[in-house]
Structures are given as C-alpha cells and as structure tokens.
Amino acid sequence: MLSEQNKIIIRKLYDNAYNHGLIGIIDEMYSPEVELHIAGIPEDPFGPLPIKQLVTMMRTAFPDCHTTIDELIDSGDKVVACVSFNGKFQGTFSGHSPGENLSWWKRIDIYRLYNGKIVEQWGDRDDYTTLQRIGVAVPKIKDERPLAREAGRL
Which CATH number fits domain 2-150: 3.40.50.150, 3.10.450.50, 3.40.50.1460, 1.20.210.10? Predict the structure, then answer.
C-alpha cells in the first residue's frame, strides 16, 4: 500500500505544481533536506527551493504548459515518473526570447520517498529537442551508428 500512496503523492505534485502553478505545495511534498540530482539544478542541490525555481521558470516560459504522466512505476520507496510536457513558448527560456512555438518534451524523474515526503530526486530532460522546437538553433547530432557498425561495436 505504501507504494500506491507514493504514486498518489507524485501525481499530486505534477497536477498541482506543474499543471496549475501552485508552487506552495512543493514545501508540503518535499523534505526540507531533499537531495536533488537533476540536470540544470544549481550548485546547492538541497532543499525544495531549486524545484520551486525550476517549476517557476517552466511556467514562465510556457504559461499554458500541461504535464501528462505517461507512466508511473513504483518499487519500494521509489517512484519513477515518465512525463510529457507541452505548451506554447511565450516567455524566456534559458536566455532565449519567445517565439510562440508550440513545444513538447519528455522527462524522467526518480523520486525516493520517506514518511510521505520526497527525500531524494533524480531527473533528466530532453533539452536538445525542446530548444529545437522553440526555434533555437542547436547543432545537429551526428549519427555515428554507421561508424560504430564498421568498427564492430554494433
């Protein structure tokens, strides 16, 4: 039953904070000493403040952003969330001006919970695709599979 409760907590986080911009709920859901291992989090990866900043940045750049939980997987004290975001780029994002482009991207987060609070979080998102979709010129990634095949690595 604990894992079901943990999944409810994570659903509540995405619905309230990410979909509705209710930043205050983050303090209720995260331990004050939460340890964060998330791409783009500043030097001090402890406490809920970086999560509040991340959600605020996203909601500023994409005010109509909607989050869809594609899959929740639980295992003991951990919940893995595979999430899709979509919205229109209307504010600044990573120093780039808005272009009114519709964008969507994926994110994977792993949460560790204790006594109903998030105590640790790992996360990674697809910034490359996001930047492409909002119209920022990013270098193309070279497909090295043919070279790997020739070298016998595939």
Answer: 3.10.450.50
